[in-house]
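Q: Hi! First time asking for a complex rather than a single chain. Here are the components, and I think there are two in total. Is that enough to go on?
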Amino acid sequence: MKILVAIKQVPDKNARLVLDSAGQGIVETDVTWEINESDRYALESALRIKEAGDGSGEVVAVTVGPERARKAISSALAMGADRAIHLADPDFQNGDPLSVARVLAAVVRKEEPQLVLCGTRSDDAGYGETPILLGGLLGWPAVFLTMGIEVADGRVKVVRELEAARQELSSIALPAVLAVQSGIHEVRYTSLKGIMAAKKKTVDQLTPTELGLSREKIGRFGSRLQVLDLAPPVKKSKCEFIEGKPGDAAAALVDRLRRDAKVL
Amino acid sequence: MAVFWAAGAALRPAPEDLPTMSSDASPNSPVHGLFLGQLADELIYPFPEQDPEQRETTDQAVDAFREWARDNVDARAIDAAQEIPKEVRDGMAELGIMGMTVPEQHGGYGFGMTAYCRMVEELTRHDASLSVYVGAHLSIGGRPIILYGTPEQQAKILPQVATGETLCAFALTEPGAGSDAGSMRTRAEWDPAKGVYRINGNKIWITNGGYADLFTVFARGSGGPAGEGEGFSAFMVRRGTPGFSNGPSEHKLGIRGTSTTELAFVDVEVPPEDRVGPWGEGFKIALQSLETGRLSLGAGCTGGAKEMVRLAVEHARERRQFRHPIIEFGMIREKLGRMAASAFGAESAVYLAAGLYDAKRGDVGVEAGYCKVLGSETLWQAVNDTIQVTGGIGYMTEYPYERHLRDSRINLIFEGTNEILRLSGTLEALKEPGRRVTDAIKAEKAELGAQGLAAALAVEGMPARAAAGATVPRWATPALAAEAAQFGATLALFGETVRATLRKHRRAILGAQYTIRRLADAAIQLYAASAALSRASTLARDKGEEGARREILLTRRFVDEACRRARHELDVVDGSRDAMDDEIAGLLAIEGRYPSPLFT
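A: Yes, that's all I need. Here is the structure of the assembled complex.
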């Protein structure tokens, strides 16, 4: 079975982020990058499905990202993906979830996998829309918050996480898009063997033309969503003393917590 | 890894066809240059860069180890249990750590020195015991087979070494042969009837003694199958060979996870195909293996020092006294500044030498020893500073700081004590200037007067005071002009001092340990300063001075202190205190106690 795994390179969780002068992005120098956490779980799931199969399976990692995303691809290959597709063309970049989903859909049409695995949401932008939009564009079922996957006889049994710790088990006809939740399995460690083997694996670069995509539909030109402003949270702290008798002060406090702080 | 090295032994017999130095040739290493009062520009600048592909591999490998170690290595538990748990040892083997430097054709990953040093740094940051465990296996234990094994030995043994199935150890040190390895008593006698070597003797303080499967054992013997004479050779002895046994793990101050044991050999039979390298080449094999060990140990210490910076800063930012985080106070800032700059200097020194080693440029044997000295002392100082910054907390066993203190102390002792490395490296570096001074004196005797002096200076080939500007690194980035000038002046003074000292002591320099210690310390500081200057200047060339601002800042801080320290040593190179120390020690040697009690 051929599985496509969409991965995204995001800033390291501990990176100190500085906004750029335009206020619409971050300064990328001095930032270290890593594979988005839930995407790693998606990749792990794909590798497990392949390993449980008859040996004919293939896991293809695909990423939309600039040159620096090459590092994420190397990591995915070192973890065990068989090959990768890097969509590094500048026209692909800086798109909203829909334009990214369009690019991924074009890759899926070209590669014809039976299953597409994504992480649920990226740790940086965090829209959580791309997998669902991808399913929509392809006309495939798409499942969000996947916590269990079992492939058998052209169908996939999926455990989906619901509210209040409830889970839903469903059976879906392939092909399908699954958005995998962090924690689904323990993610394997990368070994030196994997790192060395990755060097011999192929990484294909595709252009918009090769995917039959016009510039107006992808990247920042294809984006319907426009970020107007980014700002760091303003740190505010203020201390107020409520005077009066204990009973009155407590009542005033409850009132303030309800009315101003809206925490009660 | 507990190996104490022989004084005066040639540090590194030329392994390949290394260039030898003549008076008109340029020095074959940065330190050799310093001792001639020269800046070995072409070796020092630009700062070596790791090959991009290897760099990517190393980045990934270091990340992979870090991620694994975060989840699986509990340094505190390892220290308490005095053992590295089997899961951790197996985990490292699965990651491929045990095969890093084994050539790829034998199932390893062919790491160069720079890559290996980077990984050893990371190991040390997580747990010094792991670093020493891996170092004993790869840096020294398995190294003789990688360097000198026959194709058959390598094909047979290295694949298991690479997977970690066969863990290696290095067995050189004996009860009576520590620093003075030449006085070793373990014998390997050829038994012509059985066609085997028969090993008898004892080794002590052998790292991995309790864990290892394969021991590289050094022994003297009087012959072999081809009727060889008395010689000192290396042998492979497997655990389980009749007559071989190891003692219990010693209880140690630090690196408690490692197993350090005695080894006993009673009529241990070793077939001739298990001798490593040619008969009689044992010294050369041991020295070359130790050399790589020293460089990577220096790297490990640098990694430790950087970890100390992290721990000290973490505390200094959080801890508030007098309503301020203590990082705002000058006495804390001074420590943090020194720690960061010293780590930067040691790191620069290590990776300059590692880069030259990987590029097979020159012979960095002396630098390797100096890096071990500098790294270990930088880490020790950094741990001490961290404990001071953390105050009472630093002293409590509940926190990690005191473990770092215990773990880092061994670095000044093993793999050649810092005293031995100062001595052997410096004597090695003094050979060429010594030869030149001898020639100059001869020339002076041949010609009299001013002409004679001019002839002598020409023969010595060292810059006279007037030419001191030649020692200023002309490649230094403009922002470091003042430090480059300071360095140049100190180097000129060093060159002159070396020459004057050699003229004064002549052959007696071999025994002048007070003087050698000072020359060694000045040389170590100058070498590291040249590496730091090169590193910051190379980065400034590539990224502009703004892009290199941190490196420039740390270099300024480091070079200033390094030059002052060097200058201090040179000012008192034949210090008047030496005679007093001689006299006091003489008194102590006779009386065996504090010589002048105030109250009896």
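A: Chain A has one domain: 2-222. Let me know if you'd like any chain examined more closely.
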